[in-house]
Amino acid sequence: MVSRRRALGLGLAAVAGVSVAACGSGSDSGPASGGGSWEYTDARGKRISLKQRPQRIVAYSGVIGALNDYGVHFTGVYGPHSPVDGKLNPQSGDANFANIRSVGEKYGDFDIEKLLALRPDIVLETSFLPNKSFYITPEVLPKVEQAVPVALIDTSARTNTLQILDNMTKLARSLGGDPDSDAAKQARSRFDKASAAIKENAKANPLRVLMVSGSPDKLFVTHPKEQDNSRYVQDLGVNFVDPPYTQKGEVFTELSWEQVGRYPADVILYDSRPQAMKIEELKKVPTFATLPAVKAGNVAPWNPEIPFSHLQLAKNLEPIAEWQRTFKPVAV
Q1: Range of the domain at 213
Q2: 232 and 192 both lie in a single domain
Q3: Is the pTM of this model over 0.70?
Q4: Parallel, antiparallel, or unpaired: how do β-strands 37-41 and 47-50 relate?
Q5: What gap in Å lies between CA 293 and CA 269, rounded to an integer?
Q6: What is the pLDDT of residues 303-326, one digit of tens each?
């Protein structure tokens, strides 16, 4: 069984409520002014009340990657955000971190002293399991909360993608962002268009799809229902191969390299995060290279830890709609 921490290392409960009281009147219908009080109920059901909207925000890189697309600004970051091979880190979207101070990039390296030096009003942490932080360790979280309010934002498979997006746009608006900007509207249109195309293509070409993440000694096969963005694609009609569970709630099933042909598939989606094996490396493994999907060229990248904004999800969905139109069934 592979834990969610280990699974994502190989690599917001729903936001119950967001409200901003600007000049004494509660509202979340548009960008908030900085003068009113701010209230937020996080994934734990914990209610956070501030005298004014947070101005100095420190957040997990994936949360920044999502809220950045709606115009929210940040003071500090933690989690994966450094460029990879000269390109933006796929786990943090299109955010520019040049003027955002880092308080730790690797899991377990969260630096409280650096955090406090930034004088944050709030920390926005992501949550994949009920009542649990993701990147701030359980040992460190209480120490952080003694000094700074921490809100857990749900991006788990137990909350569907559309609800997470709705929660994220409400949070963005409450923090001064504008989910109704022209750019945000265009991103929403791209997301809707890609979703509709995937749904239609899945009916016309019902390919069997296997999601994998490679490491030097084994292959990890994803349970699509255990990751929200893959669950969303499955709900659109994509026929994911789902291996038997060895334990409830596991994210991946482990296979030795000798076992990689156990689950026949027409298409293989490989983990595109920096910590996973690149497709060129995977193809050097003989048992992987001889799979029908690999031999036919039916392989495509997939980011299982995409930031939850309409823009970032659209970028992840659009390639699916494309290969659905071109890949042919090959599995025996």
Answers
A1: 185-326
A2: yes
A3: yes
A4: antiparallel
A5: 10
A6: 988 999 999 999 999 999 999 999
